[in-house]
Amino acid sequence: MPDNVRLSPTRIPPTRAAGLAQLASFVPDAGRNYANQRNHDTGPHVAGTDGNTRRPHANVSGLSPYVRHRLITEQEIVTAVLAHHSLTAAEKFVQEVCWRTYWKGWLEMRPGVWRHYLDGLQRQRFSVSCDGELAARLAAAEAGETGIACFDAWVSELVSTGYLHNHTRMWFASIWTYTLELPWQLGADFFLRHLLDGDPASNTLSWRWVVGLQTPGKTYLARADNIDTYTGGRFTPYGQLATVAPPLEENFDIGKPVKPSAARPVPPGKLMLLLTEDDLTPEDWPMSRDQVVAVAGLRTADTYPGTSDAVVAFKQAALADAIARSQARFHCPVLVLPATGQLKDDGTVDPAPSLMALAQKAGAAAIVSMGCPVGPTGDAVWPILNAMRTSGWDVAELRRPWDDLFWPHATAGFFKLKEKIPTVLQRLDLGPQAELAFK
Questions:
Q1: Smallest Cα–Cα separation from 61: which of 165, 157, 154?
Q2: Residue range 114-230, CATH number
Q3: What is the pTM of this model?
Q4: Cα(46)–Cα(80) distance, rounded to whole angstroms?
Q5: Taking the CA of residue 81 as centre, how many other CA atoms within 13 Å lie in the half-sphere pointing to its CB?
Q6: Where are the domains of the chain?
Q7: What are phi and psi of 397, to 5 degrees?
Q8: Top-level class of domain 271-398
Q9: Staple 213 to which of 121, 128, 208, 356, CB 3.0 to 4.6 Å?
Q10: Per-residue pLDDT tens for 384-430?
Q11: E strands within 260-314?
Q12: 3-class DSSP state for residue 363?
């Protein structure tokens, strides 16, 4: 299936309003219903047995594209859920939200793993260019023409909708690596280019886990009986899948976790906000409304090579939604630039001059952005921020309390963070209704 398949704008609308509506719709089912049904992949079909139209994968939240770009935040989601359920009843769902936080914190303290993935991906792409047989097998997998019905259907669903069920992602990664015998980095890349919720930390580290690199020696084997059970018999790949999943090895020292730098407080005086796709809810950034005199957005959707048209369109529309909300809230000048902005002598691009010109014209004393976690957005944005600092601007990268409180517990396995969930949630401002969840 070609890369330019476009997502229907009504399927997953890339707006904060749509995310909040989806959250409100899901909250009643976030307790035991979710815990009992979350591992079942019911498929992309929208017609129910009663003839009514339903959201695909209605047994899970459908919130991941929104929280990935923080059109809605993890804290908003958990607050809404705990206002309706006890923490015990909603434990599985809250843990799933925290898994995403765990992966981000883990990678933030080991940024070399992201660079190692990119280096490995470059080597594998070179191998594909030199090996016709490998190139043909890769092309068949990416086109959904392997002859394994479940895998081919998942490729079609991923490319056409930008989504796959979490359980299916594990099956897919295992089949990619152990049955099709393709390099895991190329599979992680395929996901990141096509998933609307593609997150560099969750995606990279989950693929590493499947192949035995993240937890050394522990792999995940996709089994036909498991697929049969959790797809309700839609797929029965008996005799088609690998029967062993030996762990891969790498010559790379992850090293000890590096503590993230302390988040900056909000500078005093007039501010220009700089939005990126990693945090698109400036309404609750910790500054007063009258401090904001300008808002700029950086389009980074296509900075990761090969990103699908559908993902680019979603990210750009999500940024446009955040800019529109910012203009309505702050009543100030706005500017949107690609992270590739003004042409320089060496042929590269630099939007920093335009951003600084807007800040200066608006009378801003400082530029404020919500810090980008490790990944493609950060790779594109950090040089721009550093260029503005070099020019004498005070550039403050903020961090949400959710990340500040959870990330320090992402130094080892998930269990260490998991056992801190009740304590951290009590330290966060979840509102009077949610406090009932802890009693």
A1: 165
A2: 1.10.579.10
A3: 0.93
A4: 26
A5: 29
A6: 16-108+404-438, 114-230, 271-398
A7: -100, 115
A8: alpha beta
A9: 208
A10: 999 999 999 999 999 999 999 999 999 999 999 999 999 999 999 88
A11: 271-275, 292-299
A12: coil
